[in-house]
Write a structure and sequence with these properties.
By secondary structure, this protein is an alpha/beta fold. About 30% of the residues lie in helices and about 25% in strands.
């Protein structure tokens, strides 16, 4: 099949071999894959990953083959791919927290393999690794059964590809991580795919104020269309927390850092009102540290919350998000800035890196 391989130096579309699904696995024909900032972390060398690998971790498609023992899926099912395919047996899965699955965290993600410690991908007889148990920049994927979430068949597969990462993360950050209280005020720093999903999540959870913060007026205009009630265009040298507080004088109850830079994380904490929560949604490069005033945090009864994958329970949350899309409660089409063939991956990554793109879809 055709797939996008990163070897540590270049990203290229090439031919790779994909083995049949093993026990407890399914093969999915990919209809669309989303391009995410996490993919940029990989090619910049900011995250340590096994190489070479087939890129991509967001996507949707149709099941076309089943491994032995698969019971929850059938050939022809429409699925959204999840990059946290919980094992269902570890401590965290049993606690209802599959986003912290021990098998995913210790075997699948760091080693670029599936549950059994091996890869289904190869080229010229040499192992090629999976990225986050998905590798959606390809015509086909083999994933654990729990990594393919069955959804209704009338939903547009290209659009719902975004739900596998950006939307599940953003809306989940509001619902699951923050446990947002209706009527509260919210601010979102960064209006890319995840940030716009946070804004839509805050709207769904009935925020009284949603302040969108970004360096791009174009992105702020889109944020307003998707539910932001106020915007802040950041300019060089601006006191961002001070400007945010001025726009929400009642105090900001939840600030979501949807970028993950040290500066934006620190701004999120500094902008909080009394009793507020800063939710770190965007993921920074490995090894970086942020600073805050712990006395001020304690005296103001504030919280800093880490958010991995929106604290999502994929089998519960992803079908719900698809339903909300189909009911008109979510607008994902506005978040899509381009649809491109798989061979355009390098241009898609370059556009994302330049800051002008929202969510781009690669169509195998």
């Amino acid at each position: 099949m055709q797939a996008v391989v990163f070897d540590g130096e270049r990203v290229r579309l090439t031919t790779v071999d994909l083995a049949n699904p093993g026990p407890g696995e399914v093969r999915v024909r990919v209809v669309a894959a989303g391009v995410c900032h996490s993919d940029l972390h990989v090619i910049r060398g900011e995250w340590q990953v096994p190489l070479p690998l087939v890129m991509g971790h967001e996507g949707a498609g149709v099941v076309d083959a089943l491994g032995e023992g698969v019971t929850s899926l059938a050939v022809g099912d429409h699925v959204v791919l999840s990059w946290v395919p919980g094992c269902g047996e570890c401590r965290y899965c049993l606690l209802g927290r599959p986003a912290q699955c021990e098998l995913v965290a210790t075997v699948v993600a760091p080693n670029g393999v599936l549950y059994d410690g091996t890869s289904r991908l190869s080229k010229d007889g040499e192992v090629v690794h999976h990225y986050l148990g998905v590798s959606s920049f390809a015509e086909m994927v083999v994933v654990p059964e729990s990594g393919a979430i069955k959804v209704r068949s009338d939903a547009p597969l290209d659009v719902i590809a975004l739900i596998g990462c950006a939307v599940a993360t953003g809306v989940g950050a509001v619902r699951n991580t923050a446990k947002f209280v209706a009527g509260s005020t919210a601010a979102v720093i960064g209006c890319g795919g995840v940030g716009l999903s946070v804004i839509q999540g805050a709207k769904l959870e009935k925020a009284s104020v949603i302040l969108a913060v970004d360096i791009s007026q174009e992105k702020l205009d889109i944020a307003t269309k998707l539910g932001a009630t106020a915007t802040l265009l950041v300019t060089p040298g601006m006191d961002v927390p001070g400007a945010m507080k001025a726009l929400v004088p009642a105090g900001i109850d939840y600030v979501f850092d949807a970028i993950g830079k040290i500066a934006t994380t620190e701004q999120s904490i500094a902008a909080l009102g009394l009793g507020g929560s800063a939710v770190v949604v965007g993921l920074p490069p490995t090894g970086q540290t942020a600073s805050f005033d712990p006395l001020a945090l304690a005296e103001a009864d504030q919280r800093i919350l880490g958010c991995n994958y929106g604290s999502t329970v994929p089998q519960r949350d992803i079908p719900r998000l698809v339903d909300e899309l189909m009911m008109g409660e979510l607008d994902l089409e506005t978040m899509i800035s381009a649809r491109r063939p798989l061979g355009d991956v390098e241009s898609a990554l370059a556009d994302l890196d330049a800051g002008g793109a929202l969510r781009q879809l690669l169509l195998p």
